[in-house]
Amino acid sequence: MTCVVAMIREGHVFMGADSAAVGGYTIRYRKDPKVFINGEMLIGFTTSFRFGQILQYEFSPPKHHADVSIEQYMVKSVVPAMREALKTHGYTKVESNNERGGQCLIGYRGRLFMLDNDFQIAETDDGFDAVGCGHDLAMGSMHSTLKVMPSFPANSHIEMALLAAARYSAGVTAPFVYLNTGGIGETSEKEAS
Questions:
Q1: How far is the C-alpha of 86 from the C-alpha of 104, rounded, in Å?
Q2: Is the omega angle on the peptide bond into residue 80 within 30 degrees of 0, that is, cis?
Q3: Number of domains observed in the structure of the chain
Q4: Chain-wide mean pLDDT for the chain?
Q5: pTM for the whole thing?
Q6: How far is residue 167's CA from residue 190's CA, in Å, rounded to a whole number?
Q7: Are 132 and 164 in contact (CB under 8 A)?
Q8: Which strand (E) or helix (H) includes residue 5?
Q9: What's the rounded Cα separation, in Å, for the pair 166 and 149?
Q10: Is the dihedral of CA 22, 14, 167, 141 positive or negative?
């Protein structure tokens, strides 16, 4: 299930996500969005709605001290706080001494990070990223539209990526929800065509 797509534009992170909840051959349309703002962070999740609910309502972003780089803050403060919230609320899984969580995109202070299932933090040099079962389709769309139409509005690039994922992935569907780190959000009811 899921496609969450994000990109950096002019010091802000823009993010969009679909509304699918998929189990086997069943699809449900969820009202609770997969993208939200928590403090200074814009977060878009996949893996499980419970994972996202904990990050939205139980995780408190720790204070970022001025003498700590953003990378150090993400790895040494944010990840442990997320792990603790997930563990406290019964979400993490430990198998063969490996703790597993979920996957999400995090926009913070004009940067875009991906938290992976093993709690590593990744930041690509593309200026965009995607997670979920439709991520490959969305990444291809983002690459192409940014090459051909670089000045297109950020939400338009994201929408095209979500439409591509919805067209070719059974686990992605409209409506799509968009937010950015400027706090301006909108929703779109556009269907895949």
A1: 13
A2: no
A3: 1
A4: 92
A5: 0.93
A6: 12
A7: no
A8: strand 4-9
A9: 21
A10: negative
pLDDT tens per residue across span 96-119: 888 889 999 999 999 999 999 999
Neighbour count for residue 159 (Cβ, 10 Å): 21
Q: CA 97 to CA 17: how far, in whole Å?
A: 32
Q: Does residue 190 lie in a domain region?
A: no
Taking the C-alpha atoms of residue 3 and residue 123, their distance in angstroms, rounded to an integer, is 18
Assigned domain for 189 exists: no
- Identify whether 141 is part of a domain: yes
Structural domain harbouring 136: 4-182
Of 39-53, 126-140, 179-193, the least confident: 179-193
| Sequence-distant (≥ 6) Cβ neighbours of residue 140 within 8 angstroms | 164
In a domain? residue 191 = no
Residues 143-170 have a mean pLDDT of 96
Q: What is the CATH number of the domain that holds 90?
A: 3.60.20.10
Taking phi over 0 as left and psi of -120 to 50 as alpha, with beta for the rest, 17 belongs to beta
